[in-house]
Amino acid sequence: MLKIKNILLVIFATTLFCTELKSQDLPVHEQYMFDFMLVNPSFTGLTQSSIFKAIHRQQWIGFENAPKTSLFLFKHRLKGREGGIGGYVFSDLNGPNQRFGAQFNFSYQVFLYNKRNHKFIMSFGMAFRGWAHVLDQTKFTRNMYDPIVTYSKETTVNPNASAGVLFSYNHTFLGVAFDNLLPWTDRMYNRSLEPINHVLTNLHAGSILQIHKKVQLRPSCLFKSNFHGLNQLDVNLKVHYGGTSSRKSKFVRKDNDMWFGLSYRNTLDKGNSSPLSIAPSFGMSIDQFSIFYQYEIGLTSLQLYHNGTHQIGLGLKIFHDKYIKWGKFHNAIFYDEF
Predict the structure, then answer these.
(1) Cα angle 136-11-58, degrees, rounded to a multiple of 5
(2) Residues 23-81 pLDDT 10s
(3) CATH assignment at residue 140
(4) 172 forms bridges with which residues in the sheet?
């Protein structure tokens, strides 16, 4: 009886969240609040340092074999100051379904307008990735016959690419990225029955609002859609409080600071617009080290059966370059850590 109840709960959870899972395609997209490079390769290299981050996301606490995602990313500004490289490796474990992959990014930046106190930067980025999907059926119960279950371990490899562009004027940015440039269907499944994963468009914007000498508001939002009925809107706000280190520009993050954030997600799927989750977060930086945490609270009926989702990350900044020496003036580059 208990096993039947667990099966029904899994089916119930899958039904409620199937839209969200299809719309995100890559699980790392849900971690973009810790780094916008995860949804737009144009952010690669838009930093004052070389940055390394390790992030882990544990979903649906209280569910056995609940989804969990881990990733390690890096991004580095090239010596010529006009481009960047970066990427990440990730693993996504969800019961018998496992995904492992890697992505490599590169970007190129130009000044469209450059004066002492005003700058307009355009950044273009491309990314190439590949990931393996492993379906482990070796532990499936064999007390019933199912013609599509092989009780073996199957693996497929799926390549793809993404591209994006970012415009940054002083303390405000606007970007758009296109993921799944190669519309695909996992070869593990029957292509005549499975829907095609269409190009996923991410439109995002944000700004830095200096409200006090040491306090900043950093609002941002993201809208993603495949223009085939799957849509989602995220609204985010962070409050940054700076430490003791001095700075000459509000575009450069202090060496020591802390922030508090809140994110709200709402599905805008065709015929099904409803809130998905709300997520408070916290982070702090001390010298070159940083730590960040987010707790996501579901706003759907599934929340009755689990204890939320946890995300935690660690960061390291090296080769610190406080001012990017581009053009005629030594302008501080817009910092992308929202």
Answers:
(1) 65
(2) 345 677 888 888 999 999 999 988 777 899 999 999 988 888 889 999 999 998 887 66
(3) 2.40.160.40
(4) 169, 207
Q: Is residue 5 part of a domain?
A: no
DSSP sequence for 241-309: EE-S---S-TTS--SSEEEEEEEEEEEEETTEEEEEEEEEEEEEEETTEEEEEEEEEE-SGGGGGS--E
CA separation for the pair 139, 133 (Å, rounded): 17
Tokens 């405000």 sit at which residue? 172
User: Contact at 8 Å (CB) between 169 and 200?
Assistant: no
Structure tokens at 106: 């590169």
pLDDT in tens, 253-279: 556 889 999 999 999 887 778 899 999
Confidence of residue 250 (pLDDT cuts 50, 70, 90): very low
Residue 198 counted as domain residue: yes
What are the structure tokens assigned to 328, written together? 């005629």
Where does the pLDDT of residue 7 fall: very low under 50, low under 70, confident under 90, or very high at 90 and above? very low
Q: Which domain holds residue 53?
A: 10-318
Kindly compute the dihedral angle of the four CA atoms of residues 62, 186, 91, 84, in this order, to the nearest 10 degrees: -130
Count the domains in the chain: 1
In a domain, 29, yes or no: yes
DSSP 180-226: -SS-B--TTS-TTTSPPB--EEEEEEEE-EEEETTEEEEEEEEEEE-
Structure tokens at 163: 């591209």
Q: Please report the pLDDT score of residue 72 as a whole number.
A: 96
The backbone torsions φ and ψ at residue 305, rounded to the nearest 5 degrees and listed phi first, read -115, 0
The 10s digit of each residue's pLDDT in 121-146 is 899 999 999 999 998 888 888 777 77
